[in-house]
Each structure stands twice: as structure tokens, then as C-alpha cells.
Sequence to fold (160 residues):
Amino acid sequence: MQAFIEWFMAGLGKYISPQLSVFLVSMVPLVEERGGLVLARLLYLPMWEGVFWCVLGNIIPVPFILFFIEKLLHWMSSHHMSRIAEWIEQKAIKNKPKVDKFGFWGLMLFVGIPLPGTGAWTGSLVAALFDMDLKHASLSILLGIAMAAVIMTTLSYGIF
Fold:
């Protein structure tokens, strides 16, 4: 994650505002809110502002993933990108038992506990590919994003 943030700031980050930088980094799969909050702290954004832009950036992709990922994977499979589509599907399959075990709360914890390979992108992917109820999945993912924001804010801004 640190290497990605350094790469981003050396390139595009030089030309855009700190707020937009944090927002965009929070939208990137695997980096997401965790990286955005670290970046917000490195850019000396006030805590409330960093959290706002990170949460917003992390939420934006969720409905698109929930509604369109299956169509995108189908399109990728039929346009010579089947290996990538298969890798994405395998990621969802690998994480499904973690979410299934506790249902709604399992998805929330999966999204909310900031570990590598977890987060809103993967949680949305699992929810979409395994036909979870969209209302429940959306609420669970939003609560997970809020949980991750609290955890990462305390770690990034050194509240404790």
C-alpha cells in the first residue's frame, strides 16, 4: 500500500488537490479506504476531512459493483479476458465462506476489518456474485465501511 501511495503522489498526486487525491485513492481496489486515510494523514488533511473524502470514495464503487459486476465478467469472458474474469470470480469464491458463516454481520465484518484482500470492493463482489439480497448487502457494506473508517482513523491519526 505504501508503494502505491508513493507512486500515486509522485505522478497524478502532484497535479490534483489533496482532497481529490484521497478521494481517488479510496476508490482503488485493494487500497480503498485504508490507503486513503493513510494518505490523508500524510497530506496533513484534518481528520474529519480525510474521513469524509475516504468514505465517499469508498462508497461510490459499491452500487456499480453490486449491479454490474456479473455483466462485466461475462463481457470479459467473451472478449479474451477470461483469465482476469476467472481470477476475480475465484477471489469471490475464496472469500464466500468467511461471509456466509455469519451472513449480514459476516459481510459487515469482512468489509470493516481492514486486512489485505478485504474491503468494500471484495465484499460487494461476493455479495453480487452469490446473489445476496441487495438491500441487506448494501447496508452491511455501508456499516463495514463505517467500521473500517473508525479503525483506520484511530490508527492513521493516532487517536489512541
